[in-house]
Each structure stands twice: as structure tokens, then as C-alpha cells.
Write the C-alpha cells for this entry.
Amino acid sequence: MASLDEILSSLEGFQWDAGNSEKNWTRHRVSQLEAEQVFFNRPLVLPASVVGPEAERRFFALGCSDSGRDLAIVFTTRHKLVRVISARPMSRRERRIYGKAASQEV
């Protein structure tokens, strides 16, 4: 499991691909702003890295938006920016993982 601090400590902002942004909204009704909020709220859980080429590792995060919506985010980092690839509501299994991590953080 990757450390949250290792991944996010040197990042300075977000980079959005129009296609990914449109897909996240059309399929899941998750806006760019709502997806970004997840990175600023706690707990933010990184259960595992997503398999990908070494040049661009992908990460999987579980978190909560400001409105309280539980979201699953797949992202990568490019230079000093977070690039959200996918954002969607958490599955039942993901909510259990997130809930367990949140209760341990308190």
C-alpha cells in the first residue's frame, strides 16, 4: 500500500483531460470539483496501486466529497499535478473498506 504522504506531498494542483472529465460526469455524475475535494478531505484511503506501466503509475483512492458523497478515484501524477482518470461512487465493498479505515483513523 502506497503512503498518502509519499504520493501527495509534492503535488501542486490538478490536470484534467476533457474526455475523462466528460466520462466521469456522463456516467457517474461526478464533477471535476467534487473529485478534487476528495483529495482535501480525510480520511483519504489508498488501498492499492493500480497496475500500470512504470512510467505512469496509477493509484486508487477512496474518499469523501464536501457534500458527503463517497467516491472512488483512479488517478496518476504528472509532473506536480494530480490527473484524475476516473471518478465514481464507491461500491458496497469499497464503502466497507473506507468505513473500516475511517474508524481506525479516529
Q: What stands out?
A: The longest strand covers residues 70-78. The chain is about 35% helix and 30% strand.
